[in-house]
Write a structure and sequence with these properties.
heterodimer, A: mainly alpha, MetI-like fold, 0% strand, B: alpha/beta, Rossmann fold, six-stranded mixed β-sheet, 9 helices, 10 strands, globular
């Protein structure tokens, strides 16, 4: 195994990072203060105008404030990157720069409150409460006559999730080795492949299964197949990442020992790596199935088949008693899967 | 049979671990390498079977320079050099038998080894080596359920399975208690004397060195500073090797 290369962090790079963080933080605070605190709260404008000059001026303001405060104790960036010296006995959370961080969080909280349009008035309005009462009443009076229909749809969902997981396992198993840094840093070619694979996985993981389901429902048509494909893509990306992280955290000892016997690299992986990862792999895979069942219900909402599809239909017709039945079924499935998977994973420890 | 000439190792982080180390090891010798932690002992052993790549110098093993070998030729040389480790490095969750058989991987086909197919002679050989290290009857036990000393003996059997000409032992007793240490050292001695395997062993305890070594080399800061008989290490040499502050600790 190659030794890790330890690089001493470069001080000027740390300083550049720190000043960038400072500028961005102050620009953000300036923009939020102007748009939310000033326009919305102080002068209470209903439809404040937006122009791209506003973030630009905020950035200028950010640069000025950051430059003024960079060498004082109030520089958040220098504090975060460990460039401000303080008494080791004091905790970093009580330092001056930390208060700039608290201010940032406070402003974000206020802004979030306004952006989310939180309104107790609407939450407690009479007509609103009336509507809520109607829905809850219907939900608690489920229509048992569609139990059979719902059950078949639920079974479809569970099988769909199972197949999506099962198809993803062998692909993720193989890709996992290629996405593990400790196996791929032997030469430049392997390391390039590792980086490409990592980038591909990150992109496909950052696209929600819901979006994949929409893509596939156009591609292969509405139904369980498109839902299964969507879950499968997402599972491959997630499992590969979890598998490879497991490989990265294994003990190097057995690998060294098997290498020393003169074994072929494939044998080194099979005997030095695989026995160390089998149990965690099983655990991750069961958990992924559990997650897939839950996701499959949601994916049904956009045409991925199964119980989600049915739920969407009844909800569209405002047939709340039927929706109530389906909600109970979904809750039962999710609860059962959750319980079963945690028991299974516990037994594997 | 082993000749190390001007061995150099500089790690990518700039640490100069071995500086111009030269010595030779004749067939059948029990050579012990001593020195403080970080003096380069482990690095040196790993340069011999190329778990680490030396950055300069030569390692001649039976007149073949191993430092330039690649692929199949490198694996062939490795198969002739057994190695045991401080933390045993057995395959977890596998039986003693499977672990010992893994010593034969270089002579087993990839597919056959993955499906665990071994010839009867190979299995008989594995059982013989398990008996030699005193673990008869434990073949089907899981190796990671054994005690430390027993695990190290499984590791010795695995190394013997390679039919090695030389056995490298990297601090083989450093994580064992004193009584078990002696037992493991006895087995190494037996391997050396009865099977004629050359042994190169890193050790910490001088008392063990005096008892088992034919010859001692000492490393300090990556340089070879002593090469001689174990009993010739007097107080003065001891201080040179381990530093002025050091006090000798013995285990009996």
């Amino acid at each position: 195994m190659k030794q890790n290369v330890y690089r001493v962090p470069n001080k000027s790079i740390q300083n550049i990072k720190a000043i960038t963080l400072d500028v961005l933080a102050w620009a953000y605070m300036a923009l939020v203060s102007y748009k939310i605190i000033y326009e919305k709260i102080i002068i209470d404008e209903r439809y404040p105008e937006f122009s791209w000059n506003q973030p630009l001026y905020s950035l200028y303001a950010g640069i000025v404030i950051a430059a003024l405060l960079f060498f004082s104790k109030l520089s958040l960036g220098r504090g975060m990157f460990g460039l401000i010296k303080y008494d080791e006995n004091e905790s970093p959370t009580s330092q001056a720069f930390a208060y700039i961080g608290y201010l940032l969080i406070l402003l974000t909280f206020i802004a979030g409150f306004y952006v989310s349009q939180i309104s107790l008035k609407e939450f407690l309005s009479e007509s609103g409460l009336e509507g809520a009462k109607r829905i809850f009443k219907a939900l608690f009076n489920p229509n048992w006559s569609i139990f059979e229909e719902g059950l078949f749809a639920a079974i479809e969902t569970i099988y769909m999730a199972f197949i999506a997981t099962a198809v993803a396992i062998p692909i993720a198993f193989v890709l996992g080795f290629f996405a593990a840094r400790n196996l791929m840093n032997e030469n430049a070619l392997a390391f390039t492949f590792y980086n490409l694979l990592r980038a591909f996985l990150n992109i496909s993981r950052s696209i929600e299964p819901l979006v994949w389901a929409i893509i596939f429902s156009v591609w292969v048509g509405i139904g369980p197949f498109s839902g299964m494909l969507a879950l499968c893509i997402h599972s491959i990306a997630s499992l590969t990442k979890q598998y490879s992280e497991q490989i990265e955290s294994i003990d190097d000892g057995p690998i060294e020992a098997i290498t020393a016997t003169g074994a072929h690299p494939i044998q080194v992986v099979w005997f030095g790596v695989v026995p160390q990862i089998v149990l965690p792999y099983l655990s991750y895979t069961i958990y992924r199935w559990d997650i897939n069942v839950r996701m499959a219900t949601i994916i049904g909402l956009v045409g991925g088949g199964g119980i989600g599809n049915l739920l969407m239909q009844y909800q569209g017709q405002a047939r709340w008693n039927e929706v109530g039945m389906l909600v109970i079924l979904i809750a039962a499935i999710v609860w059962t899967m959750d319980w079963a998977s945690s028991k299974l994973r516990e037994a594997l420890k | 049979m082993l000749e190390i000439k001007g061995l150099e190792k500089v790690y990518p982080n700039g640490h100069h671990a071995l500086k111009n180390v030269s010595f030779s090891v004749p067939q059948g010798e029990f050579l012990v390498v001593i020195g403080l932690s970080g003096s380069g002992k482990s690095t040196m052993l790993r340069c011999i079977n190329r778990l680490h790549d030396p950055t300069g110098g030569k390692v001649d093993f039976n007149n073949v320079d191993t430092t330039k070998l690649k692929g199949a030729a490198l694996r062939k040389i490795r198969s002739e050099i057994g190695m045991i480790f401080q933390h045993f490095n057995l395959i977890p969750r596998k039986t003693v038998m499977e672990n010992v058989l893994s010593g034969n991987l270089s002579r087993t086909g990839i597919v056959a080894s993955i499906f665990g197919i071994h010839s009867d002679e190979t299995k008989a050989l594995a059982r013989k080596y398990i008996e030699i290290v005193g673990l008869k009857g434990k073949e089907r036990n899981r190796a990671d359920n054994l005690s430390g000393g027993q695990q190290q003996r499984v590791a010795i059997a695995r190394a013997l399975m390679q039919n090695p000409k030389i056995l490298l032992a990297d601090e083989p007793v450093a994580s064992l208690d004193p009584a078990t240490s002696h037992s493991v050292m006895q087995y190494l001695k037996k391997v050396n004397e009865e099977l004629g395997v050359t042994v190169i062993c890193n050790l910490h305890f001088l008392s063990l060195v005096r008892q088992y070594a034919h010859r001692v080399v000492a490393l300090k800061g990556g340089k070879l500073i002593y090469d001689g008989k174990p009993l010739e290490i007097n107080e003065e040499w001891f201080k040179t090797i381990y530093g002025e502050e050091a006090v000798e600790v013995t285990i009996n």
